[in-house]
Amino acid sequence: MSAKEILLYSAGLDSFPAWHYLGKPEALFFDIGQRYCSQEYRAIETLRRRWDITLTTSRELNLTAWERPDGIIPLRNLYFAMLASHRADVIWCIGVKGDHTADKNPEAFAQMSTFLSTYAGREIRIDSPFWDMTKTEIVRWYLDQGLPVEDLLNTFSCLNPGTSPFHCGRCSACLRRWISLVNNGITDAKFQTNPWEWDEVQSYYLTAMHDGTYPDHRAEEFFTALSTVGVDA
Ligand SMILES: [Zn+2]
What we know:
- Helix content is 42%, strand content 8%.
- The chain contains 9 helices and 5 strands, in the order E-H-E-H-E-H-E-H-E-H-H-H-H-H.
- It catalyses: 7-carboxy-7-carbaguanine + NH4(+) + 2 ATP = 7-cyano-7-carbaguanine + 2 AMP + 2 diphosphate + 2 H(+).
- Belongs to the QueC family.
């Protein structure tokens, strides 16, 4: 019997293309009380109806106490991997090229696989199919399949939308979303405010992208995106 696979899914700009890329596996969504949960539910429902996605929603864990002001929940992927390991042997958790989050990078996933295999008493693999692709390249792959732009725009990936159905335009996830879409010619994504006008673009990202804090490919995509809106990088 082949190992059972499951995709950690949030109807985001990474996990929705991943569902296609991986051949439409069973999907698992964790409602851990994240502040942008209701927007994620909306995106999940829209895409589930349109694509007949086999999806389980889990509410077995509440991490609201540990959500930081910037929306990051430390160790989130470690909790997810543990809970998903009850359900499957191969756990797809979508990281992309250049991700350096402590619990979402190739080394961390290799360590988690070893750790979980030891304690579960069977082979567990946690991995991402996109370690060699940037978000921009993932969007390009998706479009190259002839899949609809409309559904990319139906995805949700924002850490701080408030009660609005629209992306905030002022968080790291929005900035990355905008870059990957605009670099693929998609300029009509809705944001509450323009991501390129977010304070941190000037006060943090431009400097960090120039001084090597970020990998070259990420800086290049950032500068390319800014040039499309006339921001001098
Ligand atoms: Zn946002």
